[in-house]
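FORM 7B: Structural annotation worksheet

SECTION A. Query
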Amino acid sequence: MRVVAGKAKGVPLKAVPGNSTRPTTDKVKESVFNMIGPFFDGGNALDLFAGSGGLGIEALSRGIDKAVFIDKDGKAAETIRMNLEKTRLLGQAEVYRNDAKRAIKILKKNDFEARLLFLDPPYHMTEAYELMDFAAETGVLTSDAIVVCEHEKDVRLSDRTKYFERFKNEIYGGIAISIYRYTGEEGKVSE
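SECTION B. Predicted structure
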């Protein structure tokens, strides 16, 4: 596992010790960023259920200004910090050991807004994908937000939620990536 592109390209990343997380493979990471745009001109990212932080770190490496990493697991939070230090991206990041929903509420109080949300919960937590609408309703996502969901290929996510519409869905072995764009309650994609 390594950073695929950008200013930290090639830096190896540590995995969280134990079996509590499953890191996104380099191949899948590269595909995700090819689908959402390979590089960014600023903005913030929110990495929920961040694990080792691979997706958020990749976004930082590719031009996101700031990323907030959330994971309930203490080992995961420590691994993210180590990976951020290794990539020299710690100054552009905040890492919190917290419940995802609670973290969204706290981020709202701190006026944080993200244009990119990574949602990669443990596969048995299918209700966690509802957090994209919760984050939009709370005001933590910008009107041009993109949400990247990683899930088991057999899990069927909606093509449309209250605030989002899926525009990409790719399968890689046993996992699937669903990518959504913010459409607002009326279902219109913002320009």
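SECTION C. Observations
Residues 157 and 178 are 8 Å apart (CA to CA). DSSP finds five helices and seven strands in the chain.

SECTION D. Sign-off
Analyst initials: ____
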